[in-house]
User: Fold this.
Amino acid sequence: MAEETIFSKIIRGEIPANIVFQDDTVTAFRDISPQAPTHILIIPNKLIPTVNDVTAEDEQVLGHLFVVAAKIAQQEGIAEDGYRLVMNCNKHGGQEVFHIHMHLLGGKPLGPLLSQ
Ligand code: 5GP
Assistant:
């Protein structure tokens, strides 16, 4: 059984977060330490620790993350200029919270994908 993270508490409203979207399958909230003018985390309400744990059963919810990302990008006014969607996995990917999440970053030119 996977261990819950702080993100499960955010989904349930047990700790505060700036939630920009929530439905039965997905929750989206502003990152506490934004790396761009818009930095929103879009997460499945179901706990999936890493991308390595994704199964065929998750296809619908993961597809929904993209639908929600596109909707939020429109709301934030960054859709036309563009943005970046990032999902980190494990140590080499720089994953810190083990509840998969899509980073939606935008609001300025983001530069090259990797710093090195
Ligand atoms: P990762 O490195 O796992 O891909 O990204 C985790 C992200 O979660 C980081 O960008 C970090 O700032 C954000 N984060 C960690 N704890 C919290 C929290 O309690 N609230 C919010 N809103 N974001 C958090």
Notes: The first strand starts at residue 19 and ends at 22.
